Amino acid sequence: MSVKRFPLLLMSFVLVLGSRLLFAGAGDGVWVTRVPDKQRTRENPFAGQPEAVAAGAKLFRQNCSTCHGSEALGTKKYPNLHTEQVRAATDGELEWLLKNGSMKNGMPSWSRLPEQQRWQIVAFLRSLQ
Ligand code: HEC
User: Fold this and answer.
1) For the range 57-61, what are the long-range contacts, defined as Cβ-Cβ under 8 Å and sequence gap of 24 or more?
2) Which of 64, 73, 103, 128 is the most buried (most CB within 10 A)?
């Protein structure tokens, strides 16, 4: 490699690394690694119930659409919820995320909602997939 090109290479390396560090965080799916094992296997008491999906859709419009978009397709800063990453998460993991949030990355906690409502929202999220 020519000596002349070396600074250019170094600069692109720094740029790539820098943007990785900057954009790691929101939407990277790391939250799932923080879920305690016992929570992962919890079952949604409303799984597959159309009334729960409808109630969850309403709760989503009220609480979540400002960030994730009315169709849950995400916005510039906030993740799409129709992705493989969300599909791969268990109901228990999703309910855990809603309860605890991922505050550092900007996802609020929904512990103020009754647990039943969080499960209804999870039923709605499943219906998207
Ligand atoms: C203030 C903006 C904001 C609101 C309101 C919000 N979220 Fe989020 N949400 C985020 C951010 C930021 C992340 C990324 C968190 C992370 O990766 O650690 C996220 C992540 C998620 C994820 C995981 C996505 C993935 O790919 O891993 C789900 C599921 C989710 N939110 C559902 C909801 C639901 C349901 C609501 C309403 C009860 C809601 N969010 C309200 C900002 C928000």
Assistant:
1) 57/124, 57/127, 59/113, 59/117, 59/120, 59/121, 59/124, 60/121, 60/124, 60/125
2) 64
